[in-house]
Write a structure and sequence with these properties.
Rossmann fold; 4-stranded antiparallel β-sheet; about 230 residues; alpha/beta
Length: about 230
Amino acid sequence: MEIIQVVNCTKDYHSDGQIVHALRGVHLSLHKGEFAAIAGPSGSGKTTLLNCIGGLDYSTQGNVYIEGTDISKLSPKELSRLRLFKIGFIFQAYNLIPVLTALENVEYILLLQGMGDSNRKRKAAEVLELVGLKDEMHRLPHELSGGQQQRVAIARAIVSSPAIVLADEPTANVDQKTGSALLDLMEHLNKEKQITFLFSTHDPMVMKRAHRLINIIDGMIVKDTLVKRKNK
């Protein structure tokens, strides 16, 4: 069974009295453990598609299924719970809570899930060490570099071992060396933990590293390619 299934997804916006067609009848399926990228120019609909898959936005028509569940049929409370336990999000702007330390930002997801204090702190610290931030975990976001903030965002996304991680332009605000290191980390997590990664990107480096490349233009998927990668 597909872990993500998008069926005839359409998304329309109203802007200045006109209808903008952000998505036009998109069909897409991903299986568990894929490492895939949605690629396209700005305004092509890739972020909108990612947001619809993650339940952050609703499609105008069509259906999105996560592990067989039609998310359009869920109540707001049920949808929030699905996102909390099934999906990790990595945002282009990091979206870290500025008054919380790196450790507290990562802990926050586990707090919402109801995990006890000692286990929560231990698990958050373990994941921050995994992403190379053992010595920075008590720093606030503004005390960290862009690459370090993105590592915190990755740690927050994976700390609860979600089935899916959705990453919106994860390398957009970091240099090439840092971006490559972040992709190394996410590929490792994909391989070791079988977390399904789906990126939106226009970064050639991300496209080159993806195991599946989904090209979208003007709200329509125009090409979907499986790429054979050599084992490292």
